[in-house]
Fold this sequence. Notes:
By secondary structure, the protein is mostly helical. The protein is built from twelve helices and two strands. It is elongated. The chain starts with a helix and ends with a helix.
Amino acid sequence: xxxxxxxxxxxxxxxxxxxxxxxxxxxxxxxxxxxxxxxxxxxxxxxxxxxxxxxxxxxxxxxxxxxxxxxxxxxxxxxxxxxxxxxxxxxxxxxxxxxxxxxxxxxxxxxxxxxxxxxxxxxxxxxxxxxxxxxxxxxxxxxxxxxxxxxxxxxxxxxxxxxxxxxxxxxxxxxxxxxxxxxxxxxxxxxxxxxxxxxxxxxxxxxxxxxxxxxxxxxxxxxxxxxxxxxxxxxxxxxxxxxxxxxxxxxxxxxxxxxxxxxxxxxxxxxxxxxxxxxxxxxxxxxxxxxxxxxxxxxxxxxxxxxxxxxxxxxxxxxxxxxxxx
Length: 326
């Protein structure tokens, strides 16, 4: 907001200054070339106010909407820095899923439209997984609904909403320069991969597990945690225990909605028993008054991590039931 106000003051001051110069020196003529140079000089100051400026003669200057979105996406975890994709890398890119990558080299507007479609597909699949009726929502309202149900974080919601708004401009025929196509090629697959992480179907608890296991996004986040000190370790465990509990609640609610009455009653009973058993185990372990002196803060952290893994296992078990039996 401060930047915008400063820019507005600058533009107002410049306009007044030019007006005064014209009054004091009326013989000075401002032709089209001088006017164009003046506009070019102030363009860098206009970025906080406008997305693009069109100069006399049809020259169009576009600001970097996608670069701002990219920064937000990285902060939200939608773009992983260490993941590399390219149009020529056939091992990493599926032609059907990431067809927009090759399209971008020939038709950037069509690539942006295709990329938007791929994002919407995944968001609607996410809604279906968690029993949200996506058909009644527009894509923007669906993003809001997913956020309200803790399926998307606040930062993910903000990033995806801004991204969709920008991509919608391409859908409506607005032109983008080559940087937009390059951005899609570089970052599009990374964003889709991040959404795909939330949609992966895992096995190994009630079904046969493949040799290659997919890492859950919460596990990936936990593994990237800083654990250099005991405090950092405890904080990491606490944060990810909360994430697993939220994920468990979402999976449970979705599964409950999709089951028939007899299974609903059994699910509720087993879940209540599981919760009760977990709390009993915690109460038993932490009932020892000298626990800290016997196992130390490191031991406390390990026990907390063990309880986190119990929530994790229950979550993945119910998720597998949801994916394979319902």
